[in-house]
Specification:
Elements: H1 2-5, H2 19-37, E1 45-51, E2 58-59, E3 64-69, E4 73-75, E5 78-80, E6 85-92, H3 101-119, H4 123-145, H5 157-162
Antiparallel strand pairs: 1-6, 2-5, 3-6, 4-5
């Protein structure tokens, strides 16, 4: 999708021996990981229960890209807390099959932006893609935030007295 947004020929495999494949192979994982870590996307946010390790700390799992909430102090790849187990809320690495369409499009635009200069060197297209990326990012965040149950207030005295 990213290559099509640039007007380039799509690749058949990341293992192809062409510049496009090499760029995709090099940039796909770091860019998608950074995008997932940049926002608490609902599709990639998990609650994870951790048990204390032999050092008396909690080791952050390798698929965690960003800890959003923990019951302790994060130092490096460990969490220090006075407990036998803690539950963290985190942005985690997920497979591309779990990406909703709005996120897939965002990833493709970000990749196209990153591929633009090495493949075409066209600054006009780069600026256009940068503007498109910012618009898609805001739209994706809006869509993601509007998914799921709302915050309904029930049995609240001020609401009841109003009616």
């Amino acid at each position: 999708m990213a290559l099509l947004k640039l007007g380039e020929e799509p690749i058949q495999s990341l293992s192809d021996d062409c510049v496009s494949s090499q760029l995709a192979r090099t940039l796909f994982d770091p860019i998608t990981d950074a995008l997932i870590a940049s926002h608490p996307w609902r599709f990639a946010t998990r609650q994870i229960t951790l048990n204390v390790n032999a050092d008396g700390n909690f080791t952050i799992p390798s698929d965690v890209l960003r800890v959003l909430k923990s019951g302790g102090q994060i130092i490096g790849n460990n969490i220090i807390a006075a407990s036998d187990s803690i539950t963290i809320t985190a942005c985690v690495r997920v497979g591309t099959e779990q990406y909703p369409s709005y996120f897939s499009s965002l990833v493709a635009t970000k990749l196209a932006l990153e591929f633009c200069v090495p493949l075409s060197g066209d600054q006009t297209v780069f600026r256009m893609l940068a503007a498109l990326y910012e618009t898609e990012l805001q739209n994706a965040k809006f869509i993601d935030s509007s998914i799921g149950g709302g915050n309904h207030i029930e049995n609240f005295s001020l609401i009841s007295s109003r009616f």
